[in-house]
Design goal:
Blueprint lengths: L1 E3 L2 H13 L4 E6 L5 H13 L2 E6 L9 H6 L4 H11 L3 E3 L3 H4 L18 H4 L3 H16 L3 E5 L3 H13 L5 E5 L19 H6 L2 H12 L5 H13 L4 E10 L15 E9 L2 E8 L1
Parallel strand pairs: 1-4, 2-3, 2-5, 3-4, 5-6
Antiparallel strand pairs: 7-8, 8-9
Helix pairs in contact: 7-8, 10-11
């Protein structure tokens, strides 16, 4: 595995691979890697000739400076995990390398960024658009792999790919969970013992909700999910939404066409966790 820090060095490598007709696969990450990320890397390697993984904590997608400061950074450990997972190139750029000057671009994701994460984290998806487009320009992948835990982000990235006319395939991959059911996230490392022990209640509630859906209206089920999560003293719901899996349109009636997904954001102490389940 090659560890690269500059975009010029990476460009030379990618040029060589492309001249040789190799398919470039890409997994963008913010590091603090876990089995969820590694499953994306394995999927990338299985479906591409060359697996490129970036490790970069992107400042423009944090609307809370404390959250940015707190975000775990473990580059050496990350590189040790990447090689056995099949990564060919680990790209660990500095902020200056990604943003030689301030990125002032404004993306218009319309309705997609007006709900859930978009509503609660103003500017977050614009930052995602900035960094992912920068990384796509640098890596020039044929395929890019994203985890479905960040369900809304996948829709945003697909939209950005259309807007900017990128000729690459976005491949969503399933959520990976701990045995307890807790969705794997780099933020889990920040949970104290009590919050870590109680956080699996989030997914347990979503699974129960899926079974209750035929018996309750959409509004009643959302209320039930909120109350059920909040009945745990270590958890506090920020939002519960049930949306169409493609358009992210909020569902008000089970008879509406399309696959429904329940999405939640929950605070476990100061740590904000997101999860979703397909109904």
């Amino acid at each position: 595995m090659k560890i690269i820090h500059t975009k010029d060095e990476l460009a030379c490598l990618i040029d060589d691979y492309k001249k040789a007709g190799k398919v470039i696969g890409f997994v963008p990450t913010m590091g603090a890697l876990h089995e969820g990320h590694l499953s994306l890397v394995r999927q990338c390697k299985k479906n591409s000739d060359v697996a490129v993984v970036s490790v970069f904590v992107n400042p423009t997608q944090f609307n809370d400076p404390e959250d940015l400061k707190r975000y775990p950074r473990t580059p050496e450990k990350d590189c040790a995990l990447l090689e056995p997972a099949g990564c060919d190139i680990a790209f660990l750029p500095s902020v200056k390398e990604i943003y030689p000057e301030e990125d002032t671009r404004k993306f218009d994701f319309g309705y997609l960024e007006s709900i859930m994460e978009g509503a609660k984290r103003p500017g977050h998806f614009n930052g995602v658009g900035q960094v992912v487009s920068r990384l796509f320009d640098i890596v020039r992948p044929d395929k890019a792999f994203f985890g479905m835990k960040d369900f809304q982000q996948v829709a945003i990235i697909k939209n950005m790919v259309k807007q900017l006319n990128y000729s690459l395939e976005i491949i969503p991959c399933p959520i990976v969970r701990e045995e307890s059911g807790l969705a794997l996230s780099s933020r889990n490392a920040l949970l104290d013992e009590n919050h870590k022990k109680n956080a699996p209640h989030i997914y347990a509630t979503l699974k129960k909700a899926r079974n209750l859906a035929p018996e309750m209206s959409v509004g009643d089920l959302k209320k039930w999910i909120t109350e059920e999560i909040d009945s745990n003293p270590f958890l506090k719901t920020e939002y519960v939404e049930i949306v169409d899996d493609t358009t992210l349109k909020v569902i008000n009636d089970w008879n509406e066409e399309g696959t429904k997904v329940a999405c939640v954001a929950v605070y476990a102490g100061k740590i904000r966790l997101i999860d979703n389940i397909v109904f």
